[in-house]
Amino acid sequence: DIDVNEKYTFLKKIGKGSYGEVWLVLPNSPLSIRSQSKQLVLKRLDLRPSANSPSQNDIESAEREAKLLSTLKHPNIVAYIESFCSNDGCLNIVMAYCEGGDLYTKLKEKKAKKESLAEDQLIEWFIQICMALQYIHEKNILHRDLKTQNIFLTKHDIVKVGDLGIARALESASEFATTIVGTPYYMSPEIFSQKPYGQKSDIWALGCCVYEMTTLEHAFNAKDINALVIKILREQTPQMSKKYSEPLIDIIKSMLKKNPDDRPTAKQILQNSYIKQHILRLL
Ligand code: ADP
Ligand code: MG
């Protein structure tokens, strides 16, 4: 029987996740020299049957996130530490803390200051997100909820893709159909035409994120969900920012192609000559 308070000291609540609370914690006994006295994030889900007992769905997504995270190890994916059930009836998932917060907040701050993101910085982050996506796609896992709010930054501004709560392993070699999950702003056209969510749907979401990095606005936005769906399905590529280079804008446009087959894979993006130039610059 594990007492969570024996293992971790709770510092403060940093968020309310879709299925539970998100806490900043400190390990009581160093887990390893490396993580010694380092702040960590603990996501917990109360599994006890009670008035506000979690749905089977919440339990499954928490367990899935724990299980998936434990199999992933990549410099651009939030590092997993451990997960366990505690004697107070909670499922606890411990992961690295990203001190830089999320990209959504970062972009909001830029917008408030009427600043824009420098192309070199933008591409550096774009490359790191692509590397994370390439890694999970290679493992036949789909993120399914890629958005600027789920892209975290460390204090050194390294990108860490997180929140794999609804990520799933592809059940078979073929892509599977799903119920609508994720955030409407980032939903790809195929989702509304009963086509399966696949790797290219993650690429669409990535396109929306990079678009957001260039304009500080959602790629697709509308007053209500119906108008949003119509825009996603019909509107030709949204107005691009004039502040960025043509090759970058072309890549963003390619990720936002209506037909998933016309979008590049994460691997193809990393092989693009303009992107490769930047990778070389960063080495
Ligand atoms: P959900 O989107 O399902 O509600 P998240 O995993 O995105 O759950 O976590 C909710 C919030 O908690 C995030 O928006 C972020 O502010 C914070 N958070 C989650 N994980 C981390 C982390 N590893 N480092 C820093 N903040 C985090
Ligand atoms: Mg999230």
Automatic annotation (TrEMBL):
The chain holds residues 16 to 298 of 685 of the full protein. Belongs to the protein kinase superfamily. NEK Ser/Thr protein kinase family. NIMA subfamily. The keyword Transmembrane helix does not apply. The lineage of its organism: Eukaryota, Metazoa, Spiralia, Gnathifera, Rotifera. This is non-specific serine/threonine protein kinase. It comes from the Eukaryota. Residues 8-275 form the Protein kinase domain. Keywords: ATP-binding, Kinase, Nucleotide-binding, Serine/threonine-protein kinase, Transferase. ATP binds at residue 43. GO terms for molecular function: ATP binding; protein serine/threonine kinase activity. The keyword ATP-binding applies. Signal peptide: none annotated.
